């Protein structure tokens, strides 16, 4: 596995190696020892999967507050997405900044997003699935979000606002300036 440090501290792009022949390929998608060498001591407690049918579906930007904040290891086993992490750590020099990477079934890449970030994605084609392991259990009382198209974030989503497919919940999320401090 190749671990690539991204422009915001603590975010990692993980590129598992694929060993192939005329039958296809094999890949280790997670090794605890290698992951913990790069990301630190992390324990995953829940594995989630989402399916989005239409191209242009946006899910996010989501996070959970303490004491149920979650780190997420995200991959796209079907389709292709633009995956986004927004730094919500007020003590960070990159507070309010984001990283966007393409995750796909073809590239096999994964994104490690530690607690303290909002996460979202946009499907770049129809029939996309995202699988992610998380470091804390889902807690509806601690579930929060951030406005996906907040101009203050400057995220270049690959879909026009009028064409984006969103849930009612995601349409009602606050802008970063309305959120207040969430993580130190």
From TrEMBL:
Class in the EC hierarchy, top level: isomerase
Alphabetized InterPro entries for the sequence: RmlC-like, RmlC-like_jellyroll, RmlC_Cupin_sf
Record keywords, A-Z: Isomerase
E.C. number: 5.1.3.13
Entry's transmembrane regions: none
Matches recorded under Gene3D superfamilies: Jelly Rolls
Family stated for the protein in its record: Belongs to the dTDP-4-dehydrorhamnose 3,5-epimerase family.
Family annotation (PANTHER family): DTDP-6-DEOXY-D-GLUCOSE-3,5 EPIMERASE, THYMIDINE DIPHOSPHO-4-KETO-RHAMNOSE 3,5-EPIMERASE
Protein name in the entry: dTDP-4-dehydrorhamnose 3,5-epimerase
Origin species: Rhizobium lemnae
């Amino acid at each position: 596995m190749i671990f690539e440090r991204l422009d915001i501290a603590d975010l990692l792009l993980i590129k598992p190696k694929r060993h192939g022949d005329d039958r296809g390929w094999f890949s280790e998608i997670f090794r605890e020892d290698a992951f913990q060498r790069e990301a630190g001591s992390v324990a995953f407690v829940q594995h989630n999967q989402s399916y989005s049918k239409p191209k242009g579906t946006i899910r996010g930007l989501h996070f959970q507050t303490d004491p149920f904040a979650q780190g997420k290891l995200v991959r796209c086993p079907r389709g292709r997405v633009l995956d986004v992490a927004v730094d919500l750590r007020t003590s960070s020099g990159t507070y309010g900044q984001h990283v966007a990477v393409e995750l796909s079934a073809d590239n096999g890449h994964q994104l490690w997003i530690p607690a303290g970030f909002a996460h979202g994605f946009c499907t770049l084609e129809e029939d996309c699935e995202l699988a992610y392991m998380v470091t804390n259990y889902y807690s509806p009382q601690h579930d929060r979000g951030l406005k996906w198209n907040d101009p203050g974030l400057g995220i270049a989503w690959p879909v026009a606002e009028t064409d984006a497919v969103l849930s009612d919940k995601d349409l009602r999320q606050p802008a970063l300036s309305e959120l207040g401090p969430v993580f130190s």
